[in-house]
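Page 42, continued from yesterday. The earlier attempt failed because a stray header line got pasted into the input along with the sequence. Redoing it now with the clean sequence only.
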Amino acid sequence: MSIETKTPEKNEILFVWLNRYAGVTIKTPTKTLVIDPVDVKPRDFKNVDAVLITHEHYDHLDQSVVSEIHKLTQCMVVADPTSAKRLQNVIPPEKLHEIQLGSEVKFGEVSVKAENCNHPPAATPVSFIITSKDGVKVFHTADSLPFPEMVAIGKREKLDVVFCTVGIAPGTSPETGVEIARLTKPKVVVPYHTGSTADLKRFAELLKKEMPNVTCLIPEVGKIYQVSKRT
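This time it went through. Structure tokens are written below.
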């Protein structure tokens, strides 16, 4: 079943992991956001309000895919400064938003805030905090390694879901992913950005030892998951 055919209830969001990288579709009761779509078929995206791009690396930005999704849906595209420059020739200027660290853009009553991203190989990487109309909060950390400000982000936002990179990106591992969870203290943690089942299982084992009260969702590509607002 496609996420396109499902609508989350009040105080819920749905998400789908699109690939073995950071590609995720997040569906709120009112808006659908697609983050870092690569290795996907644009025609599978029929109702998209915004595409969000965290940085310019090949496993996060595919200009042709973003362009096709935009043509099919007329969605907005929100991108870090480096990615925005690469997209300016394929996305109309009125539909392309270059987001700066600390800034916020809204789609109806859904908010997207750009936070720091500790991913040194990228030029201007950002992570995203997405807040639904009902206040469900999702932290998409892109390829980030842990950084001290995550403590303040967690305290301020009271996060429902945090996506944690556990492989592929330089320096990342199940251990660094668990450190992100420890710093941000969400209700639900999702390990991603790996082609290794062993990485995902290792993350879950470490998290259970260190944070036994936190739910770990080990995602499968293409499967729909539901998360409720923190209570």
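Notes: The radius of gyration is 16 Å.
Reminder to self: strip header lines before submitting.
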